[in-house]
Specification:
Layout lengths: L7 H15 L4 E2 L5 H11 L5 E6 L9 E6 L9 E7 L4 H10 L7 E7 L2 E7 L3 H5 L3 E2 L2 E2 L2 E4 L9 E8 L4 H9 L3 H9 L3 E3 L2 E2 L11 E4 L3 E11 L5 E9 L2
Antiparallel strand pairs: 1-3, 2-3, 4-6, 4-9, 5-6, 7-8, 10-15, 11-12, 11-13, 13-14, 14-15
Helix pairs in contact: 1-2, 5-6
Length: 243
């Protein structure tokens, strides 16, 4: 199901990241929405000369940064931080205040809601500007840095299971422990994608593909681990549930 067909803006970003990674540098995208990040990551993985990873700062993050880097580097984690703003509960108003402070959407990751305020994940080099924000929608606020680990629910896990096929609805239902009919309704409603492209009724996944289900999370087919005597497939799935 992997594809190298990208929207023009993502195709241009892919070219830039690939060129830098092949030249020996670590290159990262801005924060991207789920389907954009999945499309870009899948396309970059088609090149065997580089390594690719993605991160949103916490397990189950919706918005992610995609990084491309040389083969000799084992892993790359973007420099991300989180801020907390008390007594603000409208994420659009908070994002507006952060944009006025000089940030754009590519600098901002997930917004996490708390009973007493909001936290936002952002790229670390924008922290100084954000800490100077004093008002949101005209109301005085205090912005403070918080540890990303305090926001992480550790929703990621590895699952080794047996499935009758590699259809997207089969894998998704097994990964998120919902009925196949329930997951199929999500597919029919356009809420499920594979590598950033809408999944069809009979779509299947290949090793390395990422399935994203809005409201549930994402699952990657890591490996095929053989078949049972009845012909079912043993698979290794990597799952991140939505917050």
């Amino acid at each position: 199901m992997s594809t190298n067909v990208l929207e023009p803006q993502l195709a241009s970003l892919r070219t830039t990241l690939l060129k830098q990674a092949q030249g020996g540098r670590v290159a990262s995208s801005p924060f991207l929405d789920p389907d954009e990040a999945a499309s870009l990551e899948a396309s970059l993985r088609l090149d065997d000369d580089i390594r690719v990873s993605s991160s949103g700062g916490i397990s189950g993050a919706r918005r992610r940064i995609v990084s491309a880097f040389p083969q000799h580097i084992p892993e790359v984690t973007p420099a991300l931080v989180a801020i907390y703003v008390a007594d603000v509960h409208d994420d659009d108003l908070l994002r507006g205040a952060l944009r006025q402070a000089g940030l754009d959407e590519g600098d901002l990751g997930d917004v996490i809601s708390h009973d007493d305020g909001l936290s936002v994940i952002l790229v670390k080099n924008k922290l100084a500007s954000v800490l100077e924000v004093e008002r949101v929608a005209g109301q005085p606020v205090t912005v403070s840095e918080v540890e990303l680990s305090l926001l992480d629910t550790k929703s990621g896990k590895d699952l080794h299971v047996v499935v009758p096929s590699l259809r997207v609805d089969v894998l998704g239902a097994k990964a998120f422990q919902v009925s196949r009919s329930y997951f199929s309704k999500g597919v029919a409603g356009g809420n499920v994608s594979v590598n950033g492209k809408p999944a069809g009724k009979s779509s299947s996944a290949n090793v390395g593909d990422e399935i994203y289900a809005d409201g549930l999370g994402r699952v990657r087919l890591v490996a095929l681990e053989g078949t049972t005597k009845k012909g079912n497939q043993k698979v290794h799935l990597q799952i991140e549930r939505s917050r």
